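User: Some background: our group keeps a shared notebook of sequences we're curious about, and every so often someone picks one and asks for a predicted structure to add to the entry. Today it's my turn. The entry only has the sequence so far, pasted here. Could you supply the structure so I can complete it?
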Amino acid sequence: MGKYLDPKADLTFKKIFGEHKHLVISLLNAMLPLKDDEHIESIEYWPAEKIPDRTEVEKYSIVDVCCKDNKKREFIVEMQMSWTESFKKRVLLNASKAYVAQTNKGMFYGNLQPVYALNFVNDIFMGDVDDYYHYYHLVHDKYTDKVIEGLHLIFVELPKFKPQSFTERKMQVLWLRFLTEIDENTREVPTELLENAEVKEALEIVERAAFTDDEMFFYDKFWDRVSTQRTWEYDWKIKMEAVEAKAEEAEAKTKEAEAKTKEAEAKTKEAEAKTKEAEAKLKQKDIDVARKLKAMNLTSEQIAEATGLTVEQIEAI
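Assistant: Of course. Here's the predicted structure to add to the notebook entry:
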């Protein structure tokens, strides 16, 4: 097996960014949409009891690094190994909880500080766009320069990231290369990663030799659970696709039956219209004959017997 462990795993991610403040500061400054005068200078990790709870499934697919800086801004960093639509809502919920948690009785609301939720997703969830970086915040629908400060949600689709020389976002590129290119199969680390002191330190942290046997057990267990979850999700997807296919087939048959019913109804109406037209023509013919017979001074009873019209109908002519 290779020299390095995958930094996206629960154990390795937390060792890098949950135990080394300067590294998570570097990551946040690189990945968040901060202005030059908003860069993070120092942070404090949240106490363990404040970190959001996990379900049994989530704790093997999601990791948290939670902290706040000297300006009281709060940051939640997560790694999501597979995507579900509910994850987006959970991110919003946890960011909202962190924002509300700043309040106390009689406080001045102007003291509330923004909460940033940075979410790395090792999956593609927006297949209809090429961008890998997705930033959500509260903006005016028409005047997009008008912003309500508070919640900032960032989602990064790691599989979409392609290394490029973005000079203005150099550290973003380096950290994303670290997260996407380093794993158990890495034999040679790109020179660009080794040349950066912070990324090089992160590489040293994920060297296999730095982990105990117990840590390796939990590392392997994490990936076993991720594999199990992905298999379950794949099987579920196949089942749902089969159900949807049957539903579409049933819907198509229903529409076909409805179309045939409408066609039959149309033909029935057409036949009824023709019948009424024929009856009208026949009735008119009887009326024309009745007029002629009436002109010949035949009695109404005689005309009725000859035409099938009633005496009342004949007398009304």
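Suggested note for the entry: The first strand starts at residue 43 and ends at 45. The beta strands are 43-45, 62-69, 74-80, 115-121, 133-139, 147-157.
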